[in-house]
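ERR on first pass: missing label on line 2. Operator R.T. fixed the label and resubmitted. Corrected input:
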Amino acid sequence: MSITVGYIAAFLTTAAFVPQAWYSWRTRDLSGISLPMYTMFTIGVGFWLFYGYLIGSVPVIFANLITFLLSSMVLGMKIQQIMALRFNR
Amino acid sequence: MSITVGYIAAFLTTAAFVPQAWYSWRTRDLSGISLPMYTMFTIGVGFWLFYGYLIGSVPVIFANLITFLLSSMVLGMKIQQIMALRFNR
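pass 2 clean. output:
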């Protein structure tokens, strides 16, 4: 039972970043996105990735690799937007 | 070593939601926030909470309880904003 619950949880908290990455990409509206959040979260997911490697768990590595790519995408767009605003003044 | 890496990962991916919840609360700017993301993510964290209960892990319960509260806050503000827009037409 707990394994199933764990897989559902991992799927939802990983897949959740797909609509955000798509929404940010499509609308380029990142004003409501917190830069500190995505910075901390992306680094944190990087640590989960390293954790998965250390314990030799493919599901942990796989889920966090996807989350890492998606949250890095949002983070990259947010940084790009901040740079654009700063240098267009 | 892996335990330390896991705790750092858990701390970062949990604490990351504090600046987002604070930013959303302070600015009420949630236009860039994806409703499907926060809906899926909050439900997913709920499953992690249940998973922590099933395996009897206090750190998993504690970290996900905080994340659940913070992501629910952002989700609630986003829903509130959508309702306000819909009924103010």
